[in-house]
Design a protein that fits this description.
about 350 residues, 17 helices, mainly alpha
């Protein structure tokens, strides 16, 4: 028995302590992802990742669950929002068909790059002018310009953003992207867009990949194919954007070391993993069944991570900046939709 006794003042190993405190929240995140999958299966128009965020927000405010979510489950839910998000983003690289993206032509590449740049910097400027707190302008700008909640999670990892800022940004971008599913198909006729042009517009302007699919499929398979390819091109710009933010943060905190005593890496490991996964996909070495399994795992990990992020949303706090956040969401929506529409007209 003496061999099992820990001397006074000696801390338990970090890994075992983290595991023991995180499992309730990790289990809750897994259950939330499973329920979100069931909702998506029952109502395909509702993307799994959107459902995960909504379920996380609901769990944080339901009287029977909020004590658990804000108490014993909080460490694990926070861990899910960080670690599982990183792994999911790495696997997202396997969905990048770089050869297919390049077939769209350099004019489309330039158009998409212009949309991303105009949306990012325009939203960032507007968010700061509106006085949104913390890193919300940066995170919302990232979500609108690249790929919604996944991009927000990636940038928050390198910017060290507050969990509440991340959750509020995810909630706003998810809400606006969900509204696009209903609004954009109504504008195809009035804007005079053919089905392929409509698909490109959707791919260049809608945030989350699932929302792009839900919106573009209303105009048929031709529109859907164009939308997915343009969207993948936007996703490919996630790595350089995250790397740029990492360099900016590193320059701002020059000389500052992490808790382990090391300087922050100039390019985060998960960004390198994302690029490596995209390169592996481009080789054609992976069979289709492996890519399908990887996509399934990626969706599950991102859903669990987004449930964790959604559970950090505190609606009373969000309501205090609700008017400014709504104004930023509307303004950013106008920017991304307008710039991408102009770009599509110039490249079709």
């Amino acid at each position: 028995m003496a061999l099992l006794h820990r001397p006074q003042g000696v801390a338990a190993p970090r890994v075992s302590r983290e595991t023991s405190t995180s499992w309730p929240g990790l289990t809750a995140a897994a259950c939330g992802a499973l329920v979100a999958w069931g909702i998506h299966r029952a109502v395909p128009a509702v993307p799994m990742l959107t459902a995960s965020v909504v379920l996380g927000i609901a769990a944080a405010h339901l009287p029977g669950l909020r004590t658990f979510v804000r108490g014993s489950a909080r460490p694990g839910l926070s861990l899910a929002g960080r670690r599982l998000m990183r792994i999911g983003i790495v696997l997202l690289g396997l969905g990048l068909g770089l050869d297919q993206v390049l077939r769209l032509g350099w004019a489309t590449v330039v158009m998409v790059a212009g949309v991303v740049a105009a949306t990012f910097f325009g939203t960032l400027w507007l968010g700061r002018r509106l006085g949104l707190p913390g890193d919300q302008p940066l995170l919302i700008a990232t979500g609108y310009s690249i790929c919604g909640a996944s991009a927000i999670g990636a940038v928050s990892e390198v910017s060290g953003s507050d969990e509440e800022d991340v959750a509020a940004s995810v909630a706003l971008v998810t809400l606006c992207g969900t509204l696009a599913i209903a609004v954009l198909p109504l504008l195809q006729g009035p804007l005079g867009l053919s089905d392929p042009a409509f698909g490109r517009w959707v791919g260049a302007s809608v945030h989350d990949v699932g929302q792009v699919v839900a919106t573009a499929q209303t105009a048929g398979p031709g529109a859907l194919g164009e939308a997915v390819l343009v969207k993948l091109m936007r996703v490919a710009m996630l790595a350089p954007l995250v790397a740029a933010v990492a360099f900016a943060v590193r320059a701002r905190r020059r000389g500052v070391r992490t808790a382990s005593g090391r300087r922050p890496a100039p390019v985060p490991l998960f960004v390198a993993g994302f690029l490596a996964a995209a390169a592996l996909r481009a080789t054609g070495a992976l069979p289709d069944v492996a890519l399908e399994w990887a996509h399934t795992v990626q969706e599950a990990l991102l859903a669990a991570a987004l449930f964790g992020l959604g559970s950090a949303v505190h609606l009373p706090t969000l309501a205090r900046t609700g008017g400014r956040a709504a104004a930023l969401g509307l303004g950013a929506w106008v920017v991304v939709a307008g710039v991408s529409y102009a770009g599509v007209l110039l490249t079709v």
